[in-house]
From TrEMBL:
Pfam families: TetR_C_31 (PF17940), TetR_N (PF00440). Residues 15-75 form the HTH tetR-type domain. Signal peptide: none annotated. InterPro entries: HTH_TetR, TetR_C_31. Keywords: DNA-binding, Transcription, Transcription regulation. PANTHER family: HTH-TYPE TRANSCRIPTIONAL REPRESSOR NEMR, TRANSCRIPTIONAL REGULATORY PROTEIN. Residues 38-57 bind DNA. This is TetR family transcriptional regulator.
Length: 191
């Protein structure tokens, strides 16, 4: 803030503050989990006054909902972009795109892994977050239905989610083997 700005003017000059808070919330979730996420910790991470939290959000549930909503949209966009690169009707290329999505997009970083697992847990326990999960799954199925019938798309979507969890939790070496992933996707896709 310069000498001629009032504190209120300095706040107005920070139009990205709410977005920064949401991004900081995702970082805190990745570092500490939902249980360790508080207004104070998020405000410190975002570099904003604590009062900004109640100004922009109705409470912690609202902040968490907006943060997970942003994360889900980012994941939806990444999958849509990957599938958009697949030529129409090329089911084999779609299978390869799905495998690459599982191997890289969903769990590309430890941060993504941690946020994903925290979201699964929260959405499983609190119905207030199911709208995000349903929107995310519907968007994934819509991409898959461009190449496969509805039942196959639903099974592939479940496989993506299941393999993601297995890879995240480190269970079953097969979940990490690119050949096994591709073979499973082709089997479900009927190729």
């Amino acid at each position: 803030m310069n000498e001629t700005q009032t504190p209120a003017a300095a706040r107005r000059a920070d139009p990205d503050r709410k977005s920064r808070i949401v991004d900081a919330c995702l970082d805190v979730i990745a570092e500490r989990g939902v249980a360790g996420t508080s207004h104070r910790v998020v405000a410190a991470k975002a570099g904003v006054p604590l009062g900004s939290m109640t100004y922009h959000f109705r409470g912690m549930a609202d902040l968490l909902h907006q943060a997970f909503d942003r994360y889900a949209q980012q994941c939806i966009d990444v999958f849509a972009e990957r599938m958009a690169a697949v030529p129409a009707g090329d089911r084999a290329a779609a299978c390869e795109a799905i495998a690459r999505h599982i191997e890289g997009d969903l769990l590309g970083t430890q941060r993504d892994l941690d946020i994903n697992l925290e979201f699964y847990t929260l959405a499983a326990r609190d119905p207030a977050y199911r709208d995000i999960a349903e929107r995310w799954m519907a968007a994934s199925r819509a991409q898959l239905e461009r190449f496969f019938d509805k039942p196959t798309a639903a099974l592939l979507d479940a496989m993506i989610e299941g393999l993601t969890l297995h890879r995240a939790l480190g269970t079953h070496a097969e979940a990490h083997d690119p050949r096994v992933i591709r073979e499973g996707i082709r089997r479900v896709a009927g190729l």
